[in-house]
Design goal:
- The protein is an alpha/beta fold and 325 residues long.
- Strand 2, helix 3 and strand 3 form a beta-alpha-beta unit.
- It has 11 helices and 12 strands.
- It has one domain: Inosine-uridine Nucleoside N-ribohydrolase, Chain A, CATH 3.90.245.10.
- It has an 8-stranded mixed β-sheet. Strands 7-8 form a two-stranded antiparallel ribbon. A two-stranded antiparallel ribbon has the order 10-11.
Amino acid sequence: MPLNKEFDRTKYAGDRADHIIEDDIRILKMLRWPEEVVDVVIDTDTFNEIDDQYAIVYALRSRDRMNVKAIYAAPFDNEKCHGPKEGMELSYNEIFNILTLAGEEEIKKNVYSGSTSFLDPNTMEPVDSPAARDLVERAKGYTEEKPLYVIALGAITNIASAMLMDPSIINRIVLIWLGGHSFEWSSSHEFNMLQDVASARVIFDSKVALVILPCMGVVSGFATSQPELEYWLKGKNELCDYLVDITIKEAATHNKIETWTRSIWDVTAVAWLVDPSFEADRIEHSPIDEFDDHYAFDHSRHLIRYVYGVKRDLIFKDLFEKLSK
């Protein structure tokens, strides 16, 4: 390579380093744990499993920490539906079901249907939906100093689409996403990430202030059992009975032995905002989500907050107390 080309590359690398530092200063400021009550929207594939139901009510019952402003139905595709459109519609209906059981009528006016397909990796065009449009408009009322918190519990299509529609919202939101596996796990692609790798790549490349909660190797430790659920929740109220019943039925479908435990994954994304003592996290460089089920790493990339441990007993104590009211 000619010497002058080498000098040019160094100059541009220096310019890029300054830009990275500016991004990281902004990101680190936005990623501080907020001591004040914050506004929140929840993006959820509620019908996919049974953990979203717990997480939604946990957020609504944590009014000393957060005000839930809207709930978005996220797409999913598995044996429970025929494609992401039906998965989203089933989730949309289940959101209303759980809000009725919880006696949370006011928030129903701000429940929005989401994407009917996943992001096309060939076009990278946003998937238009009421949820994505609401996030774009809602985020305009927030700033770097007072951001909107987005708790994402499913495939990240709605959020990535909103960012593609209006990249300026990246500087107005903090995204808390349960997705992927731990950096040390053999594969990166758990269900939420595998459903829409293209959207995950948008998120990891976007320089949004991101808190990532990996599933296997981290949140997988947040598990409960039938005897524990029945002891703490059964008979407390109609909502608790519903949660216990659907959890036991789901476990019977997917577990072969009676001594099962079930990870209630999504609750931990809410718990990050509830109490800083509930989880352990650290600053990492944003990974690159490859299409071959693995992360790639580049330490010149922007920073994210990476949860590497959850305090299972403390979170379940707080969850059970709030659900059983």
